[in-house]
Amino acid sequence: MAASVTVTHFEQLVVQQSPEQPVQRADLEAHLATRLTFYFLHNSVSVQRAIQECQEDVEIGWFEREAIVRNHMSNSRICILHIFTIVGKHCATMTVEALLNDAEVLIVGAGPSGLVLALCLAKLGVTFRIVEKSSGPGQASRAIAVQARILEFYRQLGFADEVVNGGLKMERLHLRKGSREIAVLQFGDFGKNLSAFPFVLSYPQDVHEKFLIEKLAAVGIEVEWNTELVDFADDGKRVRVTLRSQGAEEISEVAFLCGCDGAHSRVRQGLNLTFPGGTYEQRFFVADVEETGAPVKGDINICMGVDTFCLVFPIRSVKQDRLIGIVPKELADRENVTFDDIRAYVEKLAGVKVHKVNWFSTYHIHHRVAERFRVGRVFIAGDAGHVHSPVGGQGMNTGIGDAVNLAWKLAAVIQSRADASILDTYESERIAFARSLVATTDRLFQEIVGRGLGSYMFRNFVFPVLLPLALKFSSGRKAQFRLISQVRINYRQSALSEGIAGEIHGGDRLPWLGGPAGDNFEVLNSNDWQVHVYGEAQAAMRDIAANHEIPLHMFTWNAAARAAGLSKDAAYLVRPDGHVALADSKQDADSLECFLARFKIKARATRRSSK
């Protein structure tokens, strides 16, 4: 959709000179170079080049520029400059294209973290660009599990059900040694009453990324492929970035730069941040195959060896199976390993017969956490900040959690709806969890592949005997669900967290309540600040919420609310990401007023509602 730019809005964009007032070449060049460069990337160079292509003896007598702006890519726009040069009775026309970039945020990297950050910013009305140096979405499916907390975030974005329908619920996990089954872990809805998504979803990363890209395209935003970050500089007010695409460089400025560009992050390197940790000596493989054999179709199978393993699981979208495992040690250092090189090893370990290989790749896995997640106006998220062992299906989910945490805070600051200090809480809230998670998954991974007595006991007793036994009891299932689903993540030590009401502390995820009485997560789809009262809200609390235009929702007090740890008639100020900021058992209106004032919080919503 095109729109004309007026003189009053961008006076530099439309200049009309009459025939009676000739414009000299030097004046024109100076005018364009000094007055247009501010608005158009490389525009002064482009226009000068166009002028130089004119005949040197042509006097430019009458000059007119018309700027037409249309939407282009990720909230950037193309400006078409039509330059009409009239000499006597002859008219020459030159057209110059320049990119007008009004993006507030540049996202570098189009993996799951970058894509979810983009989708969140789009919903919150923030202008941005998302660039990726690769030519298209990745094919390597190093992550397969989507946890309940991520599906809750996707529900806020409006597409959780589509993801669930596109994946497979992990009803059971089979532990095998070759053709022999040694244990079955019954998952099913093992998080019942804890989340609207009480299961683990199998949804391969490559399929996942393509889905997120389609969701961005549906709202008119395209990933800028083949575009890499070359350099950046933060002057404290803006970030000046240099991008390269197909050999051409572009310089732009944004308010914030977000590096979601993986373990070899250019953004992290540009910040000179250390990335302490290590690289597992094992080399991993991934293959999409058509096979027959012992593993149970439709379920997740972990086929254990002495110091190795192989995952076998279905891919609904293409009706084939995916194998993920460890390359044999004797082949780990060989270049260009093919599936045929490991075929006999894989078929014996997994108890399968592979009939066709549709895709195969190998890779290494790291376990590291960056020393910082933020420096000034530059942030890192996902694998740029932390990389994990694949054990537990946590890495990709943690990166998506980073993106959700960062997005609403960036939006609030950019839109002047919160004090800039809330950006400090991104690092403090996310880095502690990342460090704990990396340490935990690293220990677990070493137990699985190690050769010592502890590893032997884990593989032959803890994993196949104790864990299935624990999952037979409700308390055991709930404990396991909380552990892996990420619903237990809390930010109690954050500057944004205050108070306690019932069992719920400031910083905790708001407990989910479903059933006939209603679903308290439904109102979280606004992605906005809101107050929840489970019982009756006092007049003073209603007034404070109304004065700040923050929606106040009242829910019926019942046994489910009590079981979830909520307190009757307490007030819970809920953040846009569904975590409790302020928990107040006494509904102290002054406490709410002070909290909102301290962080200069303003809601996006202009309407008030109750339930």
Which architecture of the largest domain would the CATH scheme give at its second level? 3-Layer(bba) Sandwich
> What is the tally of beta strands?
29
* CATH superfamily annotation of the largest domain: FAD/NAD(P)-binding domain
Average pLDDT score = 81
What's the domain count? 4
Descriptive account of the structure:
This protein is α+β, with helices and mostly antiparallel strands. The chain has 4 domains: 2-101, no CATH class; 105-168 and 185-277 and 368-435, FAD/NAD(P)-binding domain; 280-366, D-Amino Acid Oxidase, Chain A, domain 2 (2-Layer Sandwich), CATH 3.30.9; 498-598, Glutaredoxin (3-Layer(aba) Sandwich), CATH 3.40.30.120. Helix content is 30%, strand content 29%. It has 15 helices and 29 strands. An 8-stranded mixed sheet has the order 10-9-17-18-19-16-20-23. A 6-stranded mixed sheet has the order 25-24-29-28-26-27, covered by helices on one side. A hairpin with a 4-residue loop joins β12 (227-234) and β13 (239-245). α3 packs parallel to α9. The longest helix is centred in the C-terminal third of the chain and has 26 residues, at 424-449. The chain is globular. Mean pLDDT is 81; it is low at 1-100 and 606-611.
What descriptors fit this protein?
611 residues, FAD/NAD(P)-binding domain, D-Amino Acid Oxidase, Chain A, domain 2, 4 domains, 8-stranded mixed sheet, 15 helices, globular, disordered N terminus, disordered C terminus
